[in-house]
Each structure stands twice: as C-alpha cells, then as structure tokens.
Amino acid sequence: MSASHYVEVARAFQARGDAPAWLQAFREEGLSRFQARGLPTSKDEEWKYTPVATLSSHPFQPVSNVSAGDDVAQAVARLALPGPRLVFVDGRFVPALSVLSGLPRGVVLKPLSQALREDGVLLQETLGQFSRPSAHAFTSLNAALLEEGALLTLAPRALSEVPVQLLFLARGGDGPVLASPRIVVVAGEGSEATLVETYAGLGTGATFTNAVTEVSLGDNASLRHFKLQTEGDSALHLGGLYSRQGRDSRFQSHAFSFGGLLARNEVHAAFAGEGGECVLNGLFVGRGTQHLDNRTDLDHAVPHCSSRELYKGVLDDRARGTFHGKIRVREDAQKTDASQQSRNLLLSEGAQVDARPQLEIFADDVKCAHGTAVGRLDDNALFYLRSRGIPKVDAERMLTQAFASELVRAVPEGPVRARVEALLAEKLPGTAEVMG
C-alpha cells in the first residue's frame, strides 16, 4: 500500500468529528506531517536497513471494536503479571480483562480513551512534546490516529512497588489490522514505578502495531521500563520510546524483541536536568526470516549525567538484525560519562547483523566509550561441552543462554524476569527448558 492508503484511513477516522478542538488539531497536525514525509524508502538513511516494502504489503486498517473470546482470556491468563494491568486487543481496550485495583496512593492508570475525556489539560501539555521534534512518518501516523493507549501518572513522591502492565494482543480480523497505541507516562518529583509493555500475538492474521510511548520524569523520579515483544510470525511492529529526564532522575529501558516478521524498536532519550542516569538495554533474538531493528538516540544536553547502553543480538537461520545507536554530547554537557556497547552472536551462515554504535562529542571534559563485536559460538567451548557427553544442540543452547544471560540478569528477580526467561527459552535452539 502507498502512503495514500493511510491518508485515506486517517481522514476517514478524523471525519467522525467526535474529538475536542485541541485533539482534532493534534490529529490533523500528525496527518499533515505524515503527508509531507510520505512513507520511508531504502534511500532514507534512517531506514536503509529496514525492509520498508514489508510495511506497505497489506491494506492495514484499524478496527472499531473487538470481541474478547476464550483465546484472549487464555492469553491474558498466560501473559498477565501480578498487579494492575490494562489489556488491549488489536488496539482496543478490553475492560473485562483489565485490573485497576491495587494501585497505591498517588498512582493513576487509565486507558487513553478515558484520559482524553478527563485529563485534557495534562495531555495537551504532554502529547507530542518529546516525539514531535524527531517524528518520522509512522510516529506522525500514530498521532493522526490517536485514540487509544494508556496514561500513567505518578504524584510527587508516589511509590509503585508492583509493576504496572500494559498488555497488547494482536489477533487480526477479517483483514489486515492496524493498531496505534499511545502510552503517556508522567512521573512527578521523587516518584518511582515499574512499567511493563507486553506485545503478543494471537492467531496468524496480518497485524501491524505502530506504538509510541512518551515518558516525562520529574526531578529525582525513577522509572524502570520493560518492553517484551513476542508477536506472531506475520506481525509487523514499530515502537518508539521517547523520554525526557529531570534533574537527578533515573531511567532504565530494557527491551526484549523476540517476535514478528519485522520489528523495529527505537529509543530516543534526552537529559533535561543535571545529575541524571540512563540505562538502555536490549536483547533481540531472531530466527527464520525475521528482521529485527534496534535504534537508539541518547542526547546528553546538560552536564553531569551518565548513561550505560548495552544491546545484544542472537540470530539464527536467515534472520537479520540491526543496531544503530547514537550518543550525542552537546557543547555544554561537561562531565558526561557515557558508554555504549553492541555485541552480536550469529548461529548460522545465513544470519546477518549490521551494528553501528556512534558518538558525537562536542564537549571536552567527558568520559565516553563505545564498541561493537560480531561473532559465532566459541569452538573450544563447544568442543569442551560435547567432549563431556552433552549433545550439540544442548551445548549450543547453553552457550547461547550464557551470552544472553547478562541482559536477563539486569532484570530484578521477580515475575518480570521469570517472564523474560520463559520467552527467551522458547526462542533458543534445543529443548524448551527454561533458563535457571
């Protein structure tokens, strides 16, 4: 499909005229930006290694309603974490399977459709503030179709010890389905929370998830953000995470990308106050003909901030992955401490990876480093394990687990780590034994 298809979809959506003036203006601006940019092509440097033709392979359409049958209930029972959650199917909120009890004082979670009616002032001040400046065509399309998602707000010094989960299930319907969730997180001064975005597939229908998450961290606020992406073999997934950190704030992003025919995860993080800390971790595991893209853009705009970035890829069969990361240290950002690493493991001759860590440094009193490595399983280690009677496939699995375990151990012990371990076990070669 050409860009004109999505323009028609967005125009039909906006023609309903059921939105307040500010929201309608926001949607129209998104559509205008989308039309101006058009769909990316392989000639665009930012999309050079993404098979963009796949993104226009079907006439994807949003759905107006969904039915939550036994397949949805079973998936929720399997994927839900203890604690509060919102459940969505093909981009539509399912209240019957959502849980809003157990939220501590000062923590508010609601579907975006409700927040658009009740929190217009807050959303006018927040929506698009971080994503708009660097928006590409699909971020703009998300704005043009803005309707559903989630709003999580934390009052100053509010503490949420139990993870908050957003569970997005892609099922597909009579035709190819487009979902455009927007997640907005506003964390007040000194607050702390953990947010888990889970994207999973149901059935074999063609689905396209185009998600945008915007995070605003107040001074001394802390957020752990986990993204678990395990959609089906026919699924397309684009996700953009945009964060802005206040003074002495702490932000962690842990992205685990295991599913989809094509999945592209972007993280755009910026420091707006001194003393901030940022951790960007990612693990992508592909097989078959999967294509898994990962892009990060970390902006050190102020002094005395630190960042640590580690992405690992494991690719088998004819899968392809990319990691393109950029750390920008601006002229006034003295005393910056930044590190970026990309490490990749190829399990077959047909697997490919393209890794490009970058540093742009305009300050002189900084400590910055980056590096990349691409390799295969160590023959000596493999021989050692096989010489002790361990079958080849199990030996390969053990070594691959060891390679990935650094990022799994970065997740605190508890239900989130257990879920990551289970999802990873399903992707590794050999038996389905869960990591110990």
Automatic annotation (TrEMBL):
Superkingdom of origin organism: Bacteria
GO biological process, one term: iron-sulfur cluster assembly
SUF system FeS cluster assembly SufBD core domain: residues covered: 177-403
Domain called SUF system FeS cluster assembly SufBD N-terminal: residue spans: 19-166
PANTHER family, alphabetized: PROTEIN ABCI7, CHLOROPLASTIC
Family to which this protein belongs: Belongs to the iron-sulfur cluster assembly SufBD family.
Name of this protein: Fe-S cluster assembly protein SufD
Organism encoding this protein: Corallococcus interemptor
